[in-house]
Design brief:
The complex is a heterotrimer. By secondary structure, chain A is α/β, with parallel strands linked by helices. Chain A is built from eleven helices and twelve strands. The longest helix of chain A has 18 residues. Chain A is globular. The model of chain B has no long low-confidence stretch (mean pLDDT 81). Chain B is mostly helical. Chain C is mainly alpha-helical. Classes of the chains: A alpha/beta, B mainly alpha, C mainly alpha.
Chain lengths: 332, 274, 326
């Protein structure tokens, strides 16, 4: 396998959920790439499609009610877009593993922790002797060995999150997806978990795809970041660039709001209006109704994702007009 | 309420059961006029199978089975409705107050409720009726006393759930008396789930009354389906129609109420289930 | 865990105390002489009546009577049945065994069959087969069990002559060992089916519902994300969790199934507690009725206790909650 190959590539993905009488276009046009050893973040509010993206990357979407309309998903170069559940099963855990938010419901309540971690080991490391490996994994996530005998409800939120990570690591993944790993935790525990993630990344040469609505989390942990809005990736690039020199008005609003910047009226800045409905495919920029800096072209067609500066891409006519592109649409 | 009715009518099973109950009611009211045979009347056609004269046959005294079944509708529905009504009323009041007031009262009430649910109600019912004598009102009372814990449990759970909501605390802060809050805000919300349970209690009551009659514990001057079955027990080999038809009536009626109760429970419960 | 079990046992004892008190109250509430309740309508020798009066302190205060009643009970004296000419206790023991011979196999088969049926149907949820199963289980717990018995007798005993209509064994005396056992099985089929139908229906309903719910649980997503195949997900994660409510429903419905057994015994002339119960009602043999009530209620309490403990064994979350069932 090529060392330079991307671990995960999602290109122009269009994903729908089909309900009884309605259809939800959860992801309308998303492109996300994670290279080997990279730490990539996806930011967005609820409904932006980021969690669906995470699950799509592992084929964990409920098969009867979801469908990929167009676009591709590549895992280590292989096109997995049309994989059946059975084929997906061979990919899950290794090379991609996932850690979820709110771990109490994500752990089997009647099975001891040690056994749940051991399951990963047995599945992905068949020859290895299980008990020592489980101990190692618990050590890696900084949990005491005695935790193995406990049940999930007997542990704190932070400990459970570590257990989830141990389970994921037991699969020896090359990419770890963390879906809102710190949202259910208090600030101190958050910091510990993020630190742990960074250490593990370094130690195991693992890629990380971190999904969060909290920009601070992404700023401290990710080299590159994607911003999602209403099912579209609207901006991406080096985290520093995206957050400090945001091109898209939504990103700017998000950053201002998170920094609790006071605006001209001495109030916290917020983005007025509501997220658009997802029941139909957007023909124009989804942020248009809430945007204060739209230009004529915004009323005509949907903006394309284009590279504005090195590695910094944005889906916005107004931003592209102000900073004409230096290259054509870039590779990332 | 309109939302509930809409959801109800969308489900084919509920429409079926509601229609059946409606048919029963119509039969009870108009049946005697239409069919015209006196259920208590003895005739010459003794122990005869279904014929043109007697659509569902006659018993050992020449009484018409169909007429008896129509008469029995009144008994079953009466017992079902009144027992469920009494049990629901008692249960909601006790349960809601227990949940709202909490503390010792709540503890004691719930232990008593648990006690009633542990005791095999049928046996207790038989014992009591055997001791105090048969009679419709007594049976209704016995069933009500044995069934109230079910509604009480639901009412109490709802009250506990709603009491946590802030609007209740807000009302308290405004100085509105606890009892008023209970009646205007909390109780109306507890009624919904209790309604579903009371439909199920109706089904249980009908079954219980039939069982009691089967054992001969109903008053001899009324015709009830269970009693018809107990008479049929001795004629299984010779007059099968005495057992099959009344029992079928019991089955369909209980089924209808159970279906309805299930549907109501589905609607009242987390409606936002996936 | 020990604390949980301890508390449950304590509650069970308290409830049994309550049951005995209720029993005591019932006999005193009866219209007419209390002695009537204790002896029944059957004419009893005066000497016995006097002895009873002395033993239970009937001319003294209620508190003393209650106390004496307790003492008598603890000595295993449940009274004497003049109708059956036996002490109530020995009568009950005899008949209870026969009822168990009906109930236990029926319950076991019903529970196992219910779980297996549910596990089979869940992958095909929403299909015709699924709807039929749901419909049948609804009928199963709505059907009046005594009517079902009659219909079964009509079809299988009267019309087809395949199976016996009553009794526990054939009338021919002198069979024991294997032949007796086979006859017992033959006689068990119809009444056993009646007793088990309600149970099976309830178990199927609960098992199916809980298994379906489990498939949507978050920890199942985690299990899949680990790369486990569907079979492992089903057996190791879904089944273990979905059986929890099934166990509780099996245990807590034991009382109801006793009712079914009593009615079934009446229809099939199965010589167990049911038949005794009905004939005692008929003869107004109150000491026996009282004894049956006591026995059955205590059995239900014990069954509930066992279920409580099993529940805690299977679901570790319950062990930390000390209060009773929700």
């Amino acid at each position: 396998m090529n060392r330079n190959e991307n671990v995960l590539e999602i290109r122009d993905l269009h994903l729908v959920y089909t309900g009884r009488q309605r259809v939800v276009h959860a992801i309308q046009d998303a492109t996300v790439v994670v290279g080997r050893g990279e730490a990539v973040g996806i930011a967005g509010e609820s409904g932006s499609g980021k969690s669906s993206l995470a699950r799509a990357a592992m084929g964990l979407l409920p098969p009867k009610v979801s469908a990929i309309v167009s676009g591709r998903i590549l895992v280590e170069g292989a096109d997995v877009t049309t994989y059946t559940q059975r084929r997906w099963q061979s990919l899950r855990g290794n090379p991609i593993a996932i850690v979820f938010q709110d771990p109490l419901s994500f752990l089997n309540p009647v099975v001891r922790i040690g056994e749940q971690v051991a399951e990963s080991v047995r599945q992905h490391d068949p020859g290895v002797s299980v008990a020592p490996r489980v101990r190692d994994l618990l050590n890696m996530v900084q949990l005491p060995e005695s935790a193995a005998q406990r049940y999930p409800h007997e542990l704190s939120g932070g400990m459970r999150q570590r257990v989830m990570m141990a389970i994921a690591l037991g699969c020896r993944p090359r990419l770890l997806i963390a879906d809102e790993p710190t949202t259910a935790l208090d600030v101190t525990t958050q910091a510990e978990i993020l630190k742990l993630l960074a250490e593990l990344r370094a130690e195991l040469d693992m890629s990380l795809l971190l999904i969060s609505h909290d920009l601070g989390v992404l700023r401290s942990s990710c080299d590159r970041t994607y911003i999602m809005y209403a099912g579209h990736t609207i901006e991406s690039g080096a985290t520093v660039d995206v957050l400090r020199c945001s091109l898209h008005p939504y990103t700017k609003g998000l950053v201002d709001a998170s920094r609790m910047v006071l605006n001209a009226q001495n109030r916290f800045s917020a983005i007025g209006g509501d997220v658009p409905t997802l029941s139909k495919r957007h023909g124009l920029c989804p942020f248009l109704p809430r945007c204060a800096c739209s230009i004529a072209e915004c009323q005509d067609r949907m903006p394309r994702l284009d590279e504005q500066a090195a590695g910094h891409m944005v889906r916005c006519w107004q931003a592209q007009a102000r900073h004409p592109a230096e290259k054509g649409h870039g590779a990332v | 309420m309109p939302k509930v009715s809409r959801a109800l009518f969308r489900n084919p099973a509920t429409v079926l059961s509601l229609s059946f109950i409606l048919i029963l009611l119509c039969l009870a009211v108009f049946g005697p006029m239409v069919y015209g045979v006196d259920p208590f009347g003895l005739s010459m056609e003794v122990a005869e199978g279904p014929s043109r004269l007697h659509l569902l046959g006659t018993d050992d005294l020449g009484r018409d089975v169909l007429a008896g079944m129509i008469e029995g509708i009144k008994i079953s529905l009466f017992v079902g409705f009144s027992a469920a009504l009494a049990a629901t009323f008692l249960g909601i009041v006790v349960g809601a107050v227990a949940g709202y007031v909490g503390g010792w009262f709540d503890l004691i009430v719930m232990r008593i409720a648990e006690f009633f649910q542990v005791m095999p109600s049928f046996i207790l019912a038989v014992l009591i009726v055997a001791m105090i004598g048969p009679g419709l009102t007594r049976i209704v009372l016995v069933i009500a006393v044995l069934s109230w814990p079910q509604t009480a449990r639901f009412a109490r759970a709802e009250v506990l759930r709603i009491s946590q909501f802030d609007f209740v605390n807000a009302a308290r802060c405004l100085g509105i008396s606890s009892w008023r809050i209970l009646f205007t805000d909390v109780l109306p919300n507890a009624v919904g789930p209790a309604l579903a349970v009371s439909t199920l209690i109706m089904a249980q009551a009908i079954l219980l009354e039939a069982s009691l009659s089967f054992l001969g514990l109903s008053s001899p001057d009324i015709i009830s389906w269970g009693r018809m079955l107990s008479a049929g027990q001795n004629y299984l080999e010779t007059a099968w129609w005495l057992s099959v038809f009344p029992g079928l009536a019991i089955l369909l009626t209980v089924l209808a109420f159970n279906l309805l109760g299930d549907a109501l429970a589905d609607i009242m419960n987390p409606r936002h289930a996936n | 865990m020990t604390r949980y079990v301890g508390v449950r046992i304590l509650w069970a004892v308290i409830i049994v105390f309550g049951i005995v008190t209720v029993n005591f109250v019932l006999t005193h509430v009866l219209p007419g002489d209390v002695l009537n309740a204790l002896v029944g309508d059957f004419p009893a020798p005066q000497a016995y009546i006097d002895q009873l009066r002395e033993q239970l302190g009937l001319d003294q205060s209620v508190a003393v009577q209650l106390w004496r009643y307790w003492v008598t009970l603890l000595h295993g004296d449940l009274g004497f049945s003049f109708v059956n000419r036996q002490s109530v206790l020995s009568l009950l023991m005899q008949r209870a065994g026969i009822t168990l011979l009906l109930m236990l196999p029926a319950l076991v088969i019903a529970s196992v069959a219910g779980v297996i049926l549910a596990a089979r149907i869940v992958p095909r949820a929403g299909s015709m087969a699924d709807s039929s199963l749901v419909g049948m289980s609804l009928i199963g717990y709505s059907v009046p069990v005594f009517w079902l018995g009659q219909v079964l007798i009509l079809i299988f005993a009267v019309r087809l002559g395949w199976l016996p209509a009553s009794g526990i064994t054939s009338v021919r005396e002198d069979i024991s060992g294997w032949p007796w056992f086979l006859e017992y099985l033959r006689h068990l089929i119809l009444p056993g089916f009646c007793v088990s139908i309600y149970y099976a229906a309830v178990v199927v309903r609960v098992a199916r519902g809980s298994m379906l719910e489990m498939f949507h649980q978050d920890f199942v997503l985690t299990a899949r994300a680990k790369g486990l195949d569907e079979r492992a997900v089903l057996w190791r994660h879904v089944l273990r969790n979905s059986l929890i409510p099934v166990i509780t429903v099996i245990g807590y419905n034991f009382g109801y199934s006793l009712t079914g057994a009593i009615l079934t015994e009446t229809v099939f002339a199965w010589p167990g507690l049911g038949g005794l119960f009905v004939s005692s009602v008929h003869f107004k043999d109150y000491p026996v009725l009282s004894g049956i009530f006591l026995l059955v209620a205590t059995a239900v309490v014990v069954a509930n206790l066992i279920t409580d403990v099993l529940y805690a064994v299977v679901d570790p979350r319950v062990r930390t909650a000390v209060s009773g069932k929700a």
